[in-house]
Write a structure and sequence with these properties.
2 copies of one chain form a homodimer.
Chain A lengths: L1 E6 L7 H16 L3 E6 L5 H12 L5 H25 L4 E4 L1 H4 L1 E3 L8 E4 L2 H8 L3 E5 L2 E3 L5 E3 L4 H12 L4 E6 L20 E3 H9 L7 H10 L3 E5 L7 E4 L11 E5 L3 E9 L4 H11 L4 E6 L6 E8 L4 H10 L1 H4 L3 E5 L2 E7 L9 H11 L6 E5 L2 E7 L3 H11 L5
Parallel strand pairs in A: 1-2, 1-9, 2-6, 3-6, 9-11, 10-12
Antiparallel strand pairs in A: 4-5, 7-8, 11-12, 13-18, 14-16, 14-17, 15-16, 18-20, 19-20
Chain lengths: 402, 402
Amino acid sequence: MLIVKKFGGTSVADKERIMNVAKRCIKEYQAGHNLVVVLSAMGKQTDVLIDMAKDINPNPSKRELDMLLTTGEQTSVALMAMAMSYLGVPAVSLNAFQVAMHTTRSYGNARIKRIDIDRIRHELDQRKIVIITGFQGVNKYDDYTTLGRGGSDTTAVALAAALHADKCEIFTDVDGVYTADPRIVKNARKMKEITYDEMLDLATLGAGVLHNRSVELAKKYGVKLVVRSSMSEAEGTIVKEETKLERMLVSGVAADKNVTRISLIGLKNVPGIAFKVFDILAKANINVDMILQSIGRSETKDITFTIAQDSRDDAIKVLEEKKDLLGYSEISDNSKVAKVSIVGAGMMSNPGVAAKMFEALYNADININMISTSEIRVTVLIDVKDVEKAMNAVHDTFGLEE
Amino acid sequence: MLIVKKFGGTSVADKERIMNVAKRCIKEYQAGHNLVVVLSAMGKQTDVLIDMAKDINPNPSKRELDMLLTTGEQTSVALMAMAMSYLGVPAVSLNAFQVAMHTTRSYGNARIKRIDIDRIRHELDQRKIVIITGFQGVNKYDDYTTLGRGGSDTTAVALAAALHADKCEIFTDVDGVYTADPRIVKNARKMKEITYDEMLDLATLGAGVLHNRSVELAKKYGVKLVVRSSMSEAEGTIVKEETKLERMLVSGVAADKNVTRISLIGLKNVPGIAFKVFDILAKANINVDMILQSIGRSETKDITFTIAQDSRDDAIKVLEEKKDLLGYSEISDNSKVAKVSIVGAGMMSNPGVAAKMFEALYNADININMISTSEIRVTVLIDVKDVEKAMNAVHDTFGLEE
């Protein structure tokens, strides 16, 4: 079997953990499997590097930031190769140039376009464990790019797809996908299986277990994903096309605190104004999530939307630059908000699910700011201070603990 | 003018120093010059990385060690580009893959073969300051290599040669080349000019100011080298083909403590035995410096030679592996030795110079272990405890302070 395994920063944070990961991989290698191991930067190294950069330049160019950040994974993979060869198994580390991992050009948030697998195949043919830098790629200018937070999951899935691997195991500090974050909801339950679509909504909504693009990619190429703990041998959760389990109405609850709500007050109430706002944001590479537009009863209207917190400064900047074009009177923003979502493939044919969620929140005395829904998901924006209460209320209401 | 500037680890050890280097470069950029800036890893980062590696694997593969170490310069160049753009000047960092800096395949000690200058020219044409990782290259397998300790000097000179730069300035923590290490010999004097050959001998012999291969390369391609202080605006020392100054008999004294002496005792006294010893060492990529062979009056003989201290373990290992082939009775080694050398183009026509040096050492009560000479150099191996005394005695004897 060819297996792609991805270990996050926590799993390679120090010498002992690197040795543990090495031993775990070697056990499977010695059972005859071929392994490709994708690693993130050690522990909080990416944050340390960002702090170093911002200390020198509060607004560093994204191109140079990627150049800096990619040293993090390169350090991990080199040390892991040393650990494995210390334990007597041939291993080789490869960075994005060596792979080569071709991405779109956008620094800080690139997408993988194509992977040359010749070098990897060549190393695997020599029965080496191949250790590859997650999170990073190379664009057409021969510059490093990074795939955004959590991008190492995407690297692993993309490699599994390109290599036609038998499975792609994502090792994290939890032992699978839960019906809710077990640190917040005490009686959250681990799921044995989940569909790509459910996982996608959970990932997008901040379940924090998997990077959403990695799930999209797994779905697109039918990569069998397994979410497992790097600390235990527990079986984890399998993510695949269809699960054999009977569909639950709601399969999980997720929260995401990385949200900023921005309001444009007093926009001209003319056709195309919303388009202009979101076009400006799209061109600045800012993803807009929930959108609320006031019903334009007068000459002006308001548009409120949410974005990731780290896009806040960029968003405010481009919107202020285009103030004349948009003609609004005021921008306001609030980062003390959070999204809470329920996800479940069973929801599609059950129109009462959203109402049941709102009722649970109402009973818990939680105010809803914004609402957005998809076929298998309901999301509400609430005050960040209410997140814990909301998740427990919803989890209980849908009986997810059993 | 196109100027290549190289700054060592001390010059970029922290935020303040990075900012200082950035400001210094920008001043020249704003005077209309084009700049290529070569950087080493910050402060002691290379040593930190080596320690990390050895903590995981006491004998890491050189290929993986290079993969690890190259993160050091990549960090420096990215931060420097951020510093320059913070100060309002366009800058771009490039690593060995991006340049591309082609080297021989030998990890840890590669030599530069060829530099593609297209990318650098392209960036310079856009009036950017181009910041390039020193010390590192890429071999034909698309793997990182490093050029050995101090290799960033060589990177800078090779770039200056490839780009036909007007000069190559090497910034260090001293303000030029001295007649002896000013920390050891109090009345050492800074030289205004020195020839490539003299500098080469000083570099090889551990003057510590310039990497020897950088001087070889500068000589080969006629690159005008300037050794300057990164802390002051002092003029420094110019290294070039011929100096206008009258030739001194001896131009400098240098010491090198990075020496291990190894003796093979009781070798079979047969033809070709010395060849075998040095062939084994050459194949293990170990540079042998001084050699002393006992006159074979009996059935056995001894060979003593010196190598760099960091090659000691490798040398002992390969010699022990080949014990049967070589048939010696014993290996002994001593790292408490040092080389002291005098260098001077004027020496060639003055046979009495070596004798004068030996007399000075004799008067200072210093025992000489081994001697080696070239046309413009005399080197002695002595106890490391005598280095300071020896340098001062020799410096005084040849009147270098004036």
